[in-house]
């Protein structure tokens, strides 16, 4: 039995599908992932996957992040017997340069492969590496914007499976509840899942189709929030000589990172313990300046969390930018521990603080916020206190979303909207909505 790799490249909720040309020996004309024979160690064929990606698409290792390797999938048909090793990579580019083995390429959301003539068991191979409630719950690397998109992808794929199998809507509803419960502290995740379930008819196919749209909408909202945040920060630069602002940030936020990429000024990054993800953020920002195509010469400085107040008092920071895991109806912002101290110190020193986030992170009116705690040990009988998130007061932070800065009245209105989205799962809601599942 031949061993082959199949690599799925993911970007913005879509994966790269390739149509095999007449130059390949098997399954010509069919759609698949980037694939090829294993030439090295069948127990660890990641190098074979990277080789095939580079040869078939021109995309190199520096643009790829391995997300997951899945269980193998067996294929037996007239074309041969194969053991398929599936891989999922996040990809930083869509610039594909296909070789002679590919007749066409297309970025699509994964359920689209169910409507095409594909290589055998392509959907099974994808599902072996695609997101699930378990992987969403276990993700401690990415911010809530990214994790909420993964949750939408998981809901989309579960609904596609249910549609294929003829399962009832309730099986998809159970999957939605599991995803919501996977990260109770991430408001955007619950809001986005609730919106899909609230707006879709009560069939798996309707949930699948609404989730496809929701993935694209969520990615777009996060992009626009980053643009609005960058615009707000730019106003705090030196207008006389055109110098961009010096920005202080902490923790890891995809929206914050995208905003900073639009600015050329110096960045100060707190290391963000526990976890220390600020170190990786600082290294990533500095690495961007090594890009031969970069036009800026940005200075990046890493500092311990304990030095935040001193840095602000030193007058070297023009503006602070943080992410948000949740925005409360009063305008307060929940984010990684350290944010409250930053916001209070910045306000004391007259430094404005912005929280860049999508509107979907506004907590529903009346809902409880469930912050996570960090692992932290002490010798008996000493007690510990180690919150992973905390709240920065509304009077210290300006919330910037895809619609620009939100005033307190708008935040309260959004909170009411998000409360209504949870109606699909409240007792007696089915009767209130009617037979067609709509209010």
Structure description:
It holds the Pfam family NUDIX. One of its GO terms (biological process) is L-methionine salvage from methylthioadenosine. This is NUDIX domain-containing protein. Residues 1-131 form the Nudix hydrolase domain. The protein is an alpha/beta fold. 36% of the residues lie in helices and 20% in strands. It has helices spanning 46-57, 122-127, 133-138, 144-165, 169-182, 187-199, 204-234, 254-260, 277-288, 308-313, 339-348, 408-421, 429-433; strands spanning 2-11, 14-20, 31-32, 34-37, 64-69, 73-77, 80-91, 102-108, 247-250, 267-270, 300-303, 319-322, 326-327, 333-336, 353-356, 389-392, 398-401, 404-405. Residues 290-295 and 427-439 have low confidence and may be disordered.
Brief account:
By secondary structure, the protein is α/β, with parallel strands linked by helices.
Jot down its keywords.
alpha/beta; 8-stranded mixed sheet; 13 helices; 36% helix
Described by the principal axes of the CA atoms, the overall outline is: globular
Radius of gyration: 23 Å
Major beta sheet, specifics? 8 strands, mixed
Percentage of β-strand residues: 15-25%
What is the end-to-end distance? 55 Å
Low-pLDDT parts are 290-295, 427-439
Mean pLDDT comes to 91
Derived from helix and strand composition plus strand pairing, the structural class reads alpha/beta
Given the structure, what is the number of helices? 13
- Helical content band: 25-40%
Strand tally: 18
């Amino acid at each position: 039995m031949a061993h082959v790799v199949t690599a799925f490249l993911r970007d913005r909720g879509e994966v790269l599908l390739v149509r095999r040309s007449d130059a390949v020996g098997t399954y010509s004309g069919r759609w698949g992932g980037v694939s090829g024979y294993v030439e090295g160690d069948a127990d660890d064929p990641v190098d074979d996957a990277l080789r095939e990606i580079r040869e078939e698409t021109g995309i190199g290792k520096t643009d790829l992040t391995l997300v997951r390797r899945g269980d193998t999938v067996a294929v037996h048909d007239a074309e041969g017997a194969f053991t398929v090793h599936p891989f999922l990579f996040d990809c930083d580019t869509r610039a594909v340069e296909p070789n002679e083995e590919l007749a066409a390429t297309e970025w699509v959301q994964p359920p689209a492969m169910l409507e095409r003539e594909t290589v055998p068991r392509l959907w099974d191979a994808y599902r072996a590496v695609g997101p699930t409630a378990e992987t969403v719950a276990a993700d401690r690397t990415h911010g809530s914007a990214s994790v909420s998109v993964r949750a939408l992808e998981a809901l989309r794929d579960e609904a596609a499976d249910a549609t294929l199998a003829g399962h009832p809507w309730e099986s998809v509803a159970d999957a939605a509840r599991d995803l919501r419960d996977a990260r109770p502290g991430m408001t955007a995740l619950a809001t986005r899942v609730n919106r899909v379930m609230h707006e879709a008819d009560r069939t798996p196919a309707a949930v699948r189709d609404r989730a496809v749209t929701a993935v694209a909408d969520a990615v777009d909202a996060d992009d626009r929030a980053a643009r609005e945040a960058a615009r707000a920060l730019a106003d705090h630069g030196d207008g006389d000589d055109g110098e961009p602002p010096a920005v202080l940030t902490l923790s890891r936020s995809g929206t914050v990172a995208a905003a900073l990429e639009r600015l050329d000024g110096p960045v100060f990054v707190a290391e963000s313990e526990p976890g220390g993800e600020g170190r990786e953020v600082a290294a990533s920002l500095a690495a961007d300046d090594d890009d031969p195509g970069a036009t800026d010469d940005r200075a990046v400085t890493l500092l311990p969390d304990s030095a935040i107040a001193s840095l602000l008092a030193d007058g070297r920071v023009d503006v602070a930018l943080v992410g948000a895991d949740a925005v409360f109806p009063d305008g307060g912002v929940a984010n990684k521990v350290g944010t409250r101290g930053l916001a209070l110190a910045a306000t004391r020193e007259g430094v404005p603080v912005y929280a860049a986030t999508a509107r979907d992170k506004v907590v529903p009116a009346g809902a409880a916020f469930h912050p996570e705690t960090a692992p932290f040990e002490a010798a008996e009988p000493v007690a510990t206190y180690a919150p992973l998130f905390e709240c920065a007061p509304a009077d210290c932070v300006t919330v910037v979303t895809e619609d620009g800065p939100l005033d307190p009245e708008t935040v309260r209105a959004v909170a009411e909207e998000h409360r209504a989205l949870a109606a699909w799962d409240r007792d007696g809601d089915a009767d209130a909505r009617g037979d067609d599942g709509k209010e």
